[in-house]
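Expect chain and fold; see below:
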Amino acid sequence: MHADLDSFYASVEQRDDPALRGRPVIVGGGVVLAASYEAKAFGVRTAMGGRQARQLCPHAIVVPPRMSAYSKASAAVFEVFHDTTPLVEPLSIDEAFLDVGGLARVSGTPVEIAARLRERVRVDVGLPITVGIARTKFLAKVASQEAKPDGLLLVEPDRELAFLHPLPVRRLWGVGAKTAEKLQAHGVHTVADVAELGEPLLGSIVGGAMGRQLFALSRNIDRRRVVTGVRRRSIGAQRAVGRAGNTMSLNEIDAVVINLVDRITRRMRTSDRTGRTVVLRLRFNDFSRVTRSHTMPRATASTDAILETARGLVAAAAPLIAERGLTLVGFAVSNIDREGAAQLELPFPPSPPDTTAVDGAVDLIRQRFGNGAVTRGVLLGRDPGLEMPMLPD
């Protein structure tokens, strides 16, 4: 089963404020973090600029995000998930895969299990949730997308391809706007078109690895199991920056980079982690995204070392930022060493100053007196911004 809360942030706001129920609600002002289905009916979408969203839906009610309320609601929903089955794989704060294949004797059919889960989430947590059921994770997720909002859909084993093949090619995992454009230029518009195209030709259009993946998914071949207890393979943070159509200066972007790296490295040191690879994620005005990464010579949790790498990635992406406009920036540090090991090196060539002690002292001061007790000069007087939750790896 793929269980996915509907318009999660907006649904929490409507649950907690009866005056918002049945009305168009937008969470977040500068960038839309979530929109109720009443607002989506007017074309409002997540990650859209706030100004554009208000133009599309002038009578929408804009509310500030309350991350603590969303975290609490998420915890309550996942408690229901774990009461349903021990095999739960979280995907984000508001969705998960659940394996219920072995529960027939004790819990009933998958549809009966899903119906009870939806009822419990509605009664105990007060939120609508959609569930898709299928033999594979991929198809279960597609089923939940088709069943939204507040629905339940079972794809029977003997109807899998009949259900899947008429759907648009964007339903295939990994197919974004750019890949869809490439496929459509070759007359590929539906999943059935992908299945008929053949793996070699697909590879020539979208690359070998992607071609193999799309060819398999178009036939509902997905051997992934529901995996529990997986520890994070990266530590990251991201932030919406400004509104579509607005241009940020290089200094403003750099301040965001400093703020995000400072948060990430503090978490790394708190959890005794080091990492080697810094990943930059950008989203632009046209909703396109790019990812860039760089692997450092050794694992570290040093703010200065990771910040230097992060700045280099942003500088390399500067032409894209200038051309497309920036609406979201995020970083993650991967290649994590869970024991916090850092490679020691001989002192030649000359090593940069060791800032480990400084980082540790700053962490202790913030822990005792608050995050604002010590900060970088460039961040003084600036809005630290709302950090958006990242999907777990």
In short: DSSP finds 16 helices and 13 strands in the chain. The mean pLDDT is 86. The chain has three domains: 1-155, 162-217, 235-388.
